[in-house]
Amino acid sequence: MTNLGRLGLVVLALLTGCVAQSARKPAFKPIPARVATAPESAQQPALPQPPQPTPAAPVLIEPGHDATWVSFDEWSQQNGFNRPRRISLHPLKCVIETPRGLLSVEAGRDMMQWNGTEVQLGFIPFARNGVLFVHALDVRKNMIPLLLEQAALPRPGRIIVLDPGHGGRNTGARSIHDGVFEKDLTLDIALRLKPLLEARGWKVYLTRTNDVDVPLTARVAFADEKRADLFLSLHLNSAHPSQRESGIETYCLTPAGMPSNLTRGFEDSPVNTYPNNNYDTQNLQYAVRIHRALVQLGVSRDRGVRRARFLGVLRGQNRPAVLVEAGYLSNPDEARRLADPAFRQTLAEAIASALE
Ligand SMILES: [Zn+2]
Fold first, then answer.
1. What per-residue confidence (pLDDT) applies to 14?
2. Active site residues
3. Where in the chain is the domain with CATH 3.30.457.10?
4. Of 28, 36, 294, 298, whose CB has the highest number of CB atoms within 10 Å?
């Protein structure tokens, strides 16, 4: 079989997997059959090919080997959107208008923007002959979920587990402003968030309600025991001793086949899958909603919705799961804001508003 033939099969299998995963029938047509190889600099020598998976099986793409690129123009037009508008030519940046919002992608940049919110891509798009190419996995795992219906939210008796990060001897980061620990602030925010979510019809449980360290596996087991529909872990960031970094980051589990944006030195094998990968679509939908609400407060930099695979509190979850890093305790401005109870209340209200 030719390499192109194989690529075609991979694209077909990707599409089939996507359709099978969605509860609603998406209004999307197949990812275009026309594919391009990676730029010369990214091309790898041909490797022995594993047996082709059946169409229903998940397809795992090792970055750099079976990389499959899709014309952003063609994909957009085949889905009934207009040809992407060129916002800039050098670097090539295109935006497509969809019924649910604006999606913009730039060659050489590892973030796309969805209605103004930064969402990290697994693979950096590139331009060739004036055409912008995006990776098929980014189309499937980062773009289509946002263009679909949002995560099903209103439902009587829906259950959320809030997970205040750290606790006990596991203090987390320390505020440069007043020396307060992350563990105390995350608990405070969770306790503020609980009644706000209850007022919106959620049943709310906390993995801890006082200053104890709870192992990550116990936090996941707690969510299983409560039959949670959603798991939200609350953290605050630190780049100590640097004071420069600031802003909001929101994490969900890296889809199979994609590299993570954050690894912290842990193994990050794109061939690994975890229970929580069954919720890739909803993970991203919830992450973007929560992230956008926090960024729209207008006081923090948008560091993007990002992907990590090592976070034990996410990957073992049998439900959508999101982890928020709601500011840097190592940044003097953010640490000062986070020391203010009124600001922590504002953060809690923003998160609650994302989960109406
Ligand atoms: Zn933390």
1. 38
2. 325
3. 3-147
4. 294
